[in-house]
Amino acid sequence: MNAVRLSPPATLTKPGIIQDHPVRATIPLASSKSESNRALIIDALTGFQCDLKNLSTARDTQTMIRLLKSQDPTADVLDAGTTMRFLTAYFAVTGQQKIMTGTPRMCERPIGILVDALRALGADITYLEKEGYPPMQIKGFRSSETNRISIRGDVSSQYISALVMIAPLLPNGLTLELTGAIGSRPYIEMTLEQMAYFGADVQADWEQKTITIGPKPYTAKPYAIESDWSGASYWYSVAALAQDETAEITLLGLKAKSLQGDSAIVDIMRSLGVESTFTESGVRLTKCPARESLAWDFTDCPDLAQTVAVCAAVKGVTLHLTGIESLKIKETDRVAALQAELQKIGAELVELDPNHRYEVHQLPTSHTVPATIKTYDDHRMAMAFAPVAMREEISIEEPRVVDKSYPSFWEDMATVATVDFIQEEAIH
Ligand SMILES: O=C(O)C1=C[C@@H](OP(=O)(O)O)[C@@H](O)[C@H](O)C1
Ligand SMILES: C=C(OP(=O)(O)O)C(=O)O
Q1: Domain that holds residue 86
Q2: pLDDT, position 30
């Protein structure tokens, strides 16, 4: 078993006197895998003519790059949701015969809504194991007359992003009518903004819940990807939990006006004690007073839920969460994972009523330190719990899970805490 042991920042000033180490860090951050993976699909649809700068080092993006170039008949996306959904649409519309597969967990993440829509547009796709789930075989594409499709908006926005990105290639374009609630809407808006930047004819009417894409091809252009706001969230939590009231953390490459909905962390963390100041190079985090309780709807920013839940739990801020239904179909069931692991740091996540309202609160009982946190093949479990190290020692299992979105996470953490990797021998 591999683990990483994190210890709070402290220095020995005189024998026996331990003082909090001043928390000062400048963090380069990984760039956004969401923006990268969209830019890569659009680039491929221009015949690889765009000059993409600052592409993410995330495994999800590196997998996308590899699979776009590969002649292999099997595309194994590993655990990358966007790579699976975006490539399925891309291979279908470009008429490439591919088997789409991934990790066992990827084969439990639903894809039926996207496949049904692609079939209606003319794709020939068959499931190889379970209906509605990978693996599946893409056999070919014969454009249908259909250019209007009704699609649920409440399961994953990635299906909608995948469809709109290929729509400029369809002979009659595409109109999507979104039904039900729309989850992760900022991710759809990010897709549409990037498409419009590359010259696509894009119209969204959020009142009517329709998106219309004209049959106008993309224009190749240079594009620079912003740093990752989801990755930035862990640094907000570090700042919120730092004991040093003068803590100052600078996050490079972030913009006040971002395409990424996870920039909502700026507003969330103001309530948890972090002030943001935008500079030429990024954003500077400093401490400010925190509130005693906070209610937040995570419908638009589901990837922030774990960061905020752990941070609030440790700070003793009562947190009410709504809009976290989609967490159950991500890298793991993130609600169940949080419920199990928050207990270990003396807190709990409870469902308040059947309407998906949840509360996180601290428990009065003490807990064992260091806690050993399981990560369930989920990068965000590891990174959400890492900031606890600003208060107490903590061990996190399978630390390389972070490679999915933020491979340099532990190197960056080493600027604010002591980071020791532990390789435990198998016991025979
Ligand atoms: O389009 C994207 O880049 C993403 C959309 C979101 O997924 P859902 O739309 O499934 O919520 C998010 O959780 C994921 O990390 C990235
Ligand atoms: C849910 C995530 O990614 P994906 O759905 O692309 O696997 C994530 O990065 O938190």
Answers
A1: 33-224
A2: 94
